[in-house]
Automatic annotation (TrEMBL):
Source lineage: Bacteria, Bacillati, Actinomycetota, Actinomycetes, Micrococcales
Organism: Microbacterium oryzae
Keyword Transferase attributed: yes
Identification of the protein by name: Aminotransferase class I/II-fold pyridoxal phosphate-dependent enzyme
Keyword Oxidoreductase: no
Signal peptide: none
GO MF, any single term: pyridoxal phosphate binding
PANTHER family given in the database record: HTH-TYPE TRANSCRIPTIONAL REGULATORY PROTEIN GABR (PTHR46577)
Amino acid sequence: MQHGDSSPAITGHSAAEIAESVRGLIERGALAPGAALPSVRALAESLGVNRNTAVAAYRQLAQAGLVVTLGRAGTHVADRATLAQDGFAADSVLRDVGTGNPDPRLIPDMSAALTALAGRPVLYGEPVIDAGLAERARAWLGDDVASPDEMRLTVTSGAFDAVERLLAQALTRDDAVAVEDPCFLATIRTVRLAGYRPVAVPVDEEGMTPDGLRAALAEGVRAVVCTPRAQNPTGASLSARRAAELRAILAEHPYVLVIEDDHFSLLSRHPYHSIIGPEHRRWALVRSVSKFLGPDMCLAVTASDAETAERLAMRLSPGTTWVSHLLQRLALALLTDSAALDTIERAGEHYAERNRSFAERLRRHGIDTAPLDGLSLWVRLPLPARTVSERLMRRGWLARTGDDFALSRGGAASHHLRLTVHGLDDANAETLAADLAAACAQRG
């Protein structure tokens, strides 16, 4: 097939042959990253094959990570560049204020808990969730779900292990899923690498917007991923009013899977408000321990309806994909230790205070920023963030621009920086605020 005057030819009569033809063109460099492929209809007509054959070919390519489906924007050759990830930038001599990391000094000391972990070995076929952790989790999550008597618990290796498994048991490739925009980096990776079609739902200071959710549901999304508190990167938390609006909208779609990732939970300074109503049939509330017990504690607890829990459990085989009971016991020991809980409470106050303090510094320098919730600040700029970021680099700072978090901006550059400032002392915080203001004011 020849599409366009200079586009390479795609050939084949079966789905496998068509997929292999496209793969070869990509490998030879004839189709570059980002290149648009013909529509399913155009491809089928040109090759004289059934439309379903073209769909199957593109699905095979998507499963191999070679193409991405962007809804109305069509199918494109995947960008093979590594997707952005949170954490420290590698090999940089600059002061990194884009990490999104918690303060290691405010992660509870695990040494005493580790020495008390001895117990009988856990063998194949035993329950995948430790009995003590299950009891603690029921108290931790039970008060925040609409039907606590009907909820089921599952343990996974962190929040996004849970989200990935939850989506996998409910969706197939090319299914649409509603995600926040701007979006948490792990969400972007999970959705894109699995071959789902992300539908962007704008976020404001109260969380997901009602109009955005309505539009996503009208596009036929089969799942919604929502952050009720400390949305990353914006820091937004759902207000009671906004949560009620979203619940009313979702009431007409009770079988759409709603996943709430309450990643900041014990650290949040905001109350928890859910978008999951009492009559909703497919739902999950995920709470991980990574933000307050440390990223290396890869553990999350999920409360969900019985059917979702059963499907999720099928993907967690005892002895192969379960979460270590030693890790579960360690999490339980810390979650029930008064000293550890005091440290977590101090950490939450520290993050909130340092964000408030830095936002006030920015306001004094003419940059209005709302200190919402979370580990970082979402700073609105008067010019493109990449320009400001480059100017900050010349002043010794490494910041993360909002471009990494954007799902749909119509080709426009982001005007936001996400700054992680809670580790700066007052002197360095003032220097950064002044440097940021200077970078914004610089001409040319």
